[in-house]
Amino acid sequence: MEYFVYIGTLVAIYTTLTISLNLLVGYTGLISVAQAAIYGVGAYVTALVALHLTSDLLASFMLASMSGVLVSLVVALPSLRLKNEYFLIATMGFQAIIFSLFMNLDITGGASGLYGIPHPVLFGHTIRSSFEKFLLAAALAVVCYVLALRITHAPFGRLLRAVREDQMAVASLGKSVFQIKFSIFVFSAVFAAAAGTIYVYSLTAIDPVAFALDESIFIITLVIVGGTGSLNGSVLAAAALIVLPEAFKFLAIPEAIAPQLRQVLYGLLLVFFTRYRREGLIGEYRDVLK
Amino acid sequence: MTGSTVLKVDALSKSFGGLRAVSDLSFEVKAGTITSLIGGNGAGKTTAFNLITGNLAPDAGRIFFRDKRIDSLPPHKVARAGIARGFQELRLFNRLSARDNVEAAIPGQRGESIIRSLLGGHTLRVESKIATARSRALLRDLTIETQAETPAERLSYGQQKLLSLGRLLAGEGELLLLDEPTSGLNPSMVEDFCLRMRALTQDGKTILLIEHNVGIVMRLSDWVVVMHQGTKIAEGRPAEIRNNVTVMHTYLGITS
Amino acid sequence: MSIFAQFAFNGIVAGSVYALIALGFALIFTASRVFHFAHGGVYTLSAFAGYTALVTFKLGIVAGFVAAIVIAALIGVLINILLYEPMKAGGVSPFVAMISSFGVLIIITHVVAMIWGSNPVVLSRGGQTTVYHFGPIYTTDAQMLIIGLAALLAIALYVFFRHMRLGIAIRALGNDSELAEIVGMPAKRLRNIAFIVGSALVGVSALLIGLNVGIIDFNMGSDIVLMATVAMIIGGLGNVGAAAGGGFVLGMIQNIAIWKIESKWQMALSFAILIVVLLFRPSGLFGAKQAASL
């Protein structure tokens, strides 16, 4: 039972990460590989605050979200005026720098990370059981999904897609492309950071390796496999790609190569979908009803 | 008010490396008129457009829209001031439907801010209904209403040109900049285009167009500005230009 | 002061290492306009191929290099033929190709880990390493070879791109496929040649660098291809010499920085420089004018 709750929590966390990145990558066409770093910032901020100040859940979410906004200012403000390929490389640079901070600063615990993070407290009630934490993760995922749906159905969502098609044309309509891109970047960062909060409280420890470039690429893989621009696809992909490798455990694959095989599988999926089926499992923009 | 100056370009210059694309260019566009900007390839016409709309920054010179100086404004601010620009390559939002293309151009939509779209609510729904009605009306007027839900990339070239005009009009700009609007159109579509242009000026719009089709230029324009190698070599009414020998030599190259 | 001289020399060695990798990476980028991140995977695989020939089968150093070069060239060109070319033909943006390249990098990296294990592996050619010293500076024969090779290749590629028809054609490819066909070879064939040469280069470098360091591991390529990207951008896209120059500058900065800051910040510093260059001098330190911003 514990096991299923654990898997469920992971799926919920990755659903949030994937949907938030999908709005940035899939809808707006802004490919960023810094999502893991932002996720990590939310996690570390939550952990450090919980260890030294308070583990109040609302405070944690608020501080994590604010850190997401701050990171957006640092990363997106300078980078958004770059052309797409260079924007990606700039985000790669920021991902590396932020990861380096996780690994090398004393307060973040360096390569060993942090542990012994207290349980979150909500309105005086301590959230202790893994099931309750799963509910928390699921709640965040639902909120993210609902808000993402609102965005995609609103004129703002149309502008995102327009920016992806032709930025110069959007500007010629009197709409600020920078403002559009920046807004969605901040939204995406806030949810990535919030996912970090859930991560920390679920695991009560942080291993910095979880926030490396590989992780960013994994989240991009989820976006692509699910289908750029398809929110339902993101949910499906998160579920599929977390659950499937767990099936390896039942296939008597040796411990030593299981993690490697999992990565090879992800790499294969990424290559397959970018090469043969860029619309992903569900297809582009399928759930944008009009 | 007819007769007043809507656009004034003053001593505009722009070079790329060693190449002078626009050199000391000056002209005015009067309200309610159709002005054509003509000249051979490389004369600097599209560059002039890019300078006016803020896509390029001038090396020297000034640009006035009504009384407001706009040469240092970014493109979206120029558009908001009231200049609507069409592109030679159309630049439609290919995977969006025709209706979405037009609706995206409607100004003042509160649902276009991320905060409002997250809050949702009744006002947004009402606003959306109004926008949809307006875009449908525009599409109907352009005779492409049946294609409202078709992605722009799947329309015929003629329909795409109409859609690009629709997107331009939805923006409610006072000055319309059109770049080669009749290229690729058959004679009946060209005829339709000319009628629309006249109707628009009667509605109070001012039009500046880049056009290669000499016949249209002569027929449609109230005023013609001739460019060659980045600068203005002549301007005047169509008849005056037709009789201008310099122009005949350097650009029109016709003896008829 | 003599410590500084050693750091500076280490910088020259590191710079040469980066220059070697950046040369192949830039050659491929010039020809195909794709950031071929899978280049890192080719690097790793060829180092292990060399290891297999040299250590597992004890076939000698020459066999080691041959194995590394052949595997590298083969895998490199296969990636182009099976992945990038069809994508190009399908009109896919180089952007998406970039992402798929990451995928290939991941696949190769972890397949290597599956076959050879995730622990570092010792790579030695048997026999002693000769250590030389010039005044305050200590160096090995492998290091001198690296510097020499980097210099030689940089010059050779410069000549190739400026003065040889094939080189000029490949350069033209990046800008205009049709122009390149004037040489008489189809664009696709030219790109394949670029991949073969660029990958072979990285095969040589991988084994040489592996021998110099003494150990190889499955992550070596992933780490270094990021550095090659930084080198190429710092130096300037658009020409191979600039990329080599960028690699050299990067190596120098990393090693001289050790003087003042702890070595654990090297990576962060390198990427910080990348971002500064992207924002303020997108054409790079040595490169041709190329707009990176909208």
Describe the structure.
The complex is a heterotrimer of chains A (290), B (256) and C (294). With 290 residues, chain A is mostly helical. Chain A contains eleven helices and four strands. In chain A, a hairpin with a 2-residue loop joins strand 2 and strand 3. Chain B is an alpha/beta fold and 256 residues long. Chain B has a domain at 5-82 and 173-252: Rossmann fold, CATH 3.40.50. Chain B contains ten helices and ten strands. Chain B has helices at residues 45-53, 75-81, 98-103, 114-119, 122-141, 157-170, 187-202, 214-220, 238-243, 245-252, and strands at residues 5-16, 19-30, 34-38, 60-65, 68-69, 83-85, 175-179, 206-210, 223-228, 231-236. In chain B, helix 5 packs across helix 6 (157-170). The mean pLDDT of chain B is 90. Chain C has 294 residues and is mainly alpha-helical. In chain C, 73% of the residues lie in helices and 4% in strands. Chain C has eleven helices and four strands, in the order ααααβββααααβααα. Chain C has helices at 2-32, 39-56, 61-89, 94-116, 141-163, 165-175, 177-180, 187-213, 220-235, 240-257, 266-280, and strands at 121-122, 131-134, 137-140, 215-216. In chain C, the strands form two sheets. Chain C has a two-stranded antiparallel sheet with strand order 1-4. In chain C, strands 2-3 form a two-stranded antiparallel ribbon. In chain C, helix 1 (2-32) packs across helix 6, helix 2 packs across helix 9 and helix 9 crosses helix 10 (240-257). The longest helix of chain C is centred in the first third of the chain and has 31 residues, at 2-32. Chains A and C meet through helix 4, helix 9 and helix 11 of A and helix 3, helix 4, helix 9 and helix 11 of C.
End-to-end Cα distance of chain A:
41 Å
Rg over C-alpha atoms of chain A, rounded to the nearest angstrom: 18 Å
Intertermini distance of chain B: 37 Å
Mean pLDDT of chain B: 90
| Count of DSSP H/I helices of chain A | 11
Q: Give me the CATH architecture of the domain at 5-82 and 173-252 in chain B, please.
A: 3-Layer(aba) Sandwich
Order of helices and strands of chain A: HHHHEEEHHHHEHHH
Q: In this structure, how is the largest beta sheet of chain A organized?
A: 2 strands, antiparallel
Number of helices of chain B: 10
Query: How many runs of DSSP E, i.e. beta strands of chain B?
Result: 10
Strand percentage of chain A = under 5%
User: Which term fits the overall shape of chain A?
Assistant: globular
CATH class of the domain at 5-82 and 173-252 in chain B, anyone? Alpha Beta
- How many β-strand runs of chain A? 4
For CATH, the homologous superfamily of the domain at 5-82 and 173-252 in chain B is named as: P-loop containing nucleotide triphosphate hydrolases
Structural class of chain A: mainly alpha
Q: Record the strand order, biggest sheet of chain B.
A: 6-7-8-3-9-10
Most residues in contact: chain pair: A-C, 43 and 46 residues
Percent of residues in helices of chain A comes to over 70%
- Radius of gyration over C-alpha positions of chain B, nearest whole angstrom: 19 Å
